[in-house]
Design a protein that fits this description.
2 domains, 68% helix, 434 Repressor (Amino-terminal Domain)
């Protein structure tokens, strides 16, 4: 399992909210060193700590766990759709063309 991705996602959402590790640690009632170790993938948070972090960040669990859940790609698809909705029709079309090309050249794509 790619548990280090949990820490990367925590870091990503912490930075998106313009929080320092110290801020997140305080909001989640955890030590700064522990939050840092989680973000670096050195430690896996306990369920209680994970819930505290998720609540402190104001995100859903599936956003943090998207890379380790079997259905995590549904979350990623949803987040990507939200981003695409904010683009112009022309930009969306170009992105879809790139994705289609990548799928055609994928090693797993079937003819």
């Amino acid at each position: 399992m790619r548990l280090e991705s949990i820490g990367k996602n925590i870091r990503k959402y912490r930075l998106m909210r313009k929080l320092r590790q110290e801020d997140l640690a305080e909001k989640a009632d955890l030590s700064i060193n522990y939050v840092g170790a989680i973000e670096r993938g050195e430690k896996t948070p306990s369920l209680e700590s994970l819930i505290s972090i998720i609540n402190a960040l104001g995100v859903s669990a599936d956003m943090i766990l998207a890379d380790v859940l079997d259905n995590g790609y549904l979350v990623k698809d949803s987040l990507l759709a939200q981003k695409l909705d904010k683009l112009s029709a022309e930009d969306r079309s170009q992105i879809y063309d790139v994705i289609d090309t990548m799928i055609k050249h994928s090693k797993q794509a079937k003819p």
